[in-house]
Write a structure and sequence with these properties.
Length: 397
C-alpha cells in the first residue's frame, strides 16, 4: 500500500473514532418550553441499511419509540431529563445535549457513527426548575458578543472539566468575552454571588464580589483577581463553599460589564491584600480606584445598557453557572482542603434589621446591668452580715 493509501486509511480510522454529523436530512426535532420531540430517519442513506435503535441515544436517553412514526426512530422527552445541560443568559435559557450513534460491529446495520449537537432555547420565566449542567465550556452569543466560562488548573495553563469540589478547595475560573468585529472592549465582573438555588430571590446567598468589582470575600479568604489583567478575560480564584441546612449544590451568579477600556467609569478589579491590610487594583498597584471598596463605589453617570444593545460603550450581561457539588473534605486531610473552608449558615447570610439589632443590644445591656446589681447587692449583704457578727463578738467580750 502506497503512502496515499496509508493516509486515506488513517483518516478513515480517525473519522470512525471521532464521529461526524448525521447524514443530511436525517434528524428533525422541535422544542417547546418544556420538552423536545425528535425524529431520526431509520434509513439515513435510502439504501435499506438501517440504524440500530439500541446504538442511538439523545444525551443519556434511549429511543422512546420505533413504531410511532413509520420510517423514523422517535425521541419524546422533557428538557429536564436526558442529561440536558443548561445555561442561563439574561432572560434566555439554552438547553443542549448531543444525539450520538455508536453502532456495534453487527451485520446489516448502518455502521458509520455520528454525533450531533441538539440545542433548544426558551424563556427563563417558563423554566424555573433547575437541571444539571454537564458541560461547562460553552459559548453563547449576545448581540455581537459571546461569553465563555472555563474552570482552570492553578496556573491557568489548562482547562479542567469539573463540576464537583471539596469544601475549601481553590476554584480557578476564567471568564472571557469575544467581541467579534466590535471595537475593543474590556470585561469586568461587576458582581458575583454564590447561592443555593438558581434564582437569587429563592435562597440563601453569599457575596464574593460587589461594589462594582471589589472582591470582598478576600477579607476572609484567599479570594482574588488573578494577574495579568487582560481586556477580554477575567481570572478569579476563590475557595469552594456550601450552605448549612441546604443540599451540597451551589450556583454562581455573575453580573458582567463590558465597557470601553478608555472610559473612566468606576469599573475595576480590586483584590484585598490581607498581609498589608489594603485594597489593590489589578495591574496598577499605585491606583486609588479601589479606595472606595470599604464604602460605596459609584459608576459614572453614563447610561448602562442591556447586553442585547451593543451601541453604547457599556453592556450589562448576567450569567448563572451551576449547579456544582461541594463535598466535605476527605477524612485523611487531603491537600484539597484548606484554611479557607466556609460552611455558611443559611440564616446568618441575611443581616439583622437595624431596629431589631438595637433592641437586642439594649436588652443585653440591661441584662448585664441587672446581673452587676445582683452581684453587687449580694456582696454588700455579705459584708453587712460579717460586720454585724464582728460587732456582736466585740460586745460579748
Amino acid at each position: 500500500m502506497g503512502s496515499w493509501g496509508v493516509l486515506v486509511l488513517l483518516l478513515s480510522w480517525v473519522t470512525y473514532l471521532t464521529g461526524q454529523n448525521a447524514p443530511p436530512n436525517t434528524v428533525f426535532y422541535q422544542c417547546n418550553r418544556t420538552s423536545i420531540g425528535m425524529a431520526v430517519k431509520s434509513d439515513p442513506l435510502n439504501n435499506r441499511i438501517l440504524l440500530d435503535p439500541g446504538s442511538l441515544t439523545l444525551g443519556k436517553c434511549p429511543v422512546s419509540s420505533t413504531t410511532a412514526l413509520q420510517g423514523f426512530l422517535v425521541f419524546e422527552y422533557s428538557l429536564h431529563i436526558c442529561g440536558f445541560s443548561r445555561m442561563t443568559s439574561g432572560n434566555t435559557v439554552t438547553f443542549f445535549t448531543e444525539l450520538v450513534y455508536r453502532p456495534n460491529a453487527a451485520p446489516n446495520v448502518f455502521s458509520r457513527p455520528f454525533q450531533q449537537q441538539i440545542t433548544c432555547i426558551s424563556d427563563i420565566s417558563f423554566n424555573p426548575t433547575p437541571i444539571e449542567t454537564t458541560v461547562m465550556v460553552q459559548v453563547f452569543g449576545v448581540g455581537q458578543l459571546s461569553f465563555s466560562f472555563q474552570f482552570m488548573n492553578d496556573g491557568f495553563t489548562a482547562p479542567l472539566d469539573v463540576k464537583q469540589f471539596f469544601l475549601g478547595s481553590p476554584i480557578f475560573l476564567s471568564i472571557s468575552v469575544n467581541t467579534g468585529n466590535h471595537l475593543p472592549l474590556q470585561l469586568f465582573v461587576d458582581e458575583c454571588i454564590v447561592a443555593a438555588t438558581e434564582v437569587l430571590s429563592n435562597s440563601a446567598q453569599y457575596v464574593l464580589i460587589n461594589n462594582h468589582g471589589c472582591f470582598v470575600d478576600g477579607k476572609v479568604a484567599s479570594s482574588r483577581f488573578v494577574e495579568p489583567p487582560l481586556l477580554d478575560t477575567v481570572k478569579l480564584a476563590f475557595p469552594a463553599m456550601k450552605f448549612v441546612g441546604a443540599n451540597d449544590k451551589i450556583y454562581i451568579h455573575f453580573k458582567l460589564m463590558v465597557w470601553d477600556p478608555k472610559a473612566a467609569n468606576g469599573l475595576k478589579m480590586c483584590s484585598y491584600l490581607s498581609d498589608v491590610d489594603r485594597w489593590q487594583l489589578l495591574g496598577n498597584p499605585r491606583s486609588d480606584l479601589c479606595s472606595c471598596c470599604d464604602s460605596i463605589c459609584r459608576l459614572s453617570s453614563r447610561r448602562r445598557r442591556d447586553a442585547a444593545d451593543t451601541s453604547d460603550s457599556g453592556i450589562l450581561h448576567t450569567m448563572v453557572l451551576g449547579p456544582f457539588t461541594v463535598n466535605s473534605p476527605p477524612v485523611n486531610g487531603s491537600s484539597n482542603s484548606s484554611n479557607d473552608s466556609k460552611t455558611l449558615d443559611t440564616a446568618s447570610v441575611f443581616p439583622i434589621p437595624p431596629a431589631v439589632g438595637a433592641l437586642f443590644l439594649e436588652l443585653m445591656v440591661l441584662l448585664l446591668l441587672s446581673l452587676g446589681v445582683a452581684i453587687y447587692g449580694r456582696a454588700a449583704n455579705q459584708e453587712s452580715e460579717e460586720l454585724e457578727k464582728h460587732l456582736l463578738v466585740t460586745h460579748e467580750n
